[in-house]
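dude i think i finally got it to work??
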Amino acid sequence: MSKKIIGITMGDPAGIGPEISIKAFNKPELYERCQPLLVGDASVLTYYLKKHPELNLAVNLIQNPKDGKYEYGTIDLIDLGVVDMADFEIGQVSTTGGDAAFQYVKKVIELALAKEIDATVTNPLNKEAMNAAGHHYAGHTEIYADLTGTDKYTMMLADGNLRVVHVSTHVSLREACDRATKERVLDVIRIADKACKNLGIKNPRVAVAGLNPHCGENGLFGREEIEQINPAVKAAKDEGINVEGSLPADTLFSKANGGMYDIVVAMYHDQGHIPLKLLGFVYDQEKGSWQAVQGVNITLGLPIIRASVDHGTAFDQAGNWMTSELSLENAIDYAIRLSENS
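look at this
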């Protein structure tokens, strides 16, 4: 099987995206698994490489993915020329950074839709900066859905054995409750089952979390499970999907992390995000820094593959060369696996 071309965005150039990209590209094992392509700004990349000449990395500017060298020691880059480092500040929210991050994402989406690359991986952008630049989206997921014309999609987070998809994400908690409908829950169960199969899991075990404490205690604490969630689970079972639910969320994630289930359908943003980030984000109080920041964010239901780091731009750490590239490496790994099985 030929190595897949993976298009990787630089992220907001004022954040840690450029740094962790360079660190990932500086490992020969990346080139053993895929053909990595960076989409960003040459001025930003050159800025960092001049600060770290010990890396001895060359930049190969290309217009088309087919022209890349894809050899260790060379970073193949599609330069969009948005940022001029002469008047750009690292670590600060800016409209330039927000516009640049959006343009990088738009470009990799176009390349993937044109089948010039096999998958896309995104570094973090800053929502405030992007919206200030005139690109009004809640985040990466919504950009991908809009630019690919996708109506039914969901976010999946993954770290080790634990995979979680969401019925709703960037909405208020009140609206999240209203979005837990039979139709939406069933759609997400189907997407979750398909995603696991695309990862090579032949008969995925899907678990569906309840919305209310103890799944509502038969209507005592709410009727969403009775009226919406459980009927969706039954409909999915009738379609042949190996699914259980609704299940109390306070114990479900521990079971899934232990291997009882392959994927969990969470009802809202924090229900799914907190257990993933509790596992993947490890803070060292003595050092005053993150010991580990790992995990992957994947948008499911799209006509193209998108995986992402599961952390933000970390403007306060940008430029100090101390951030970890582990989440980016994990995202690239997921993108490769999905592209090989799609």
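The chain has a mean pLDDT of 92.
im so relieved honestly
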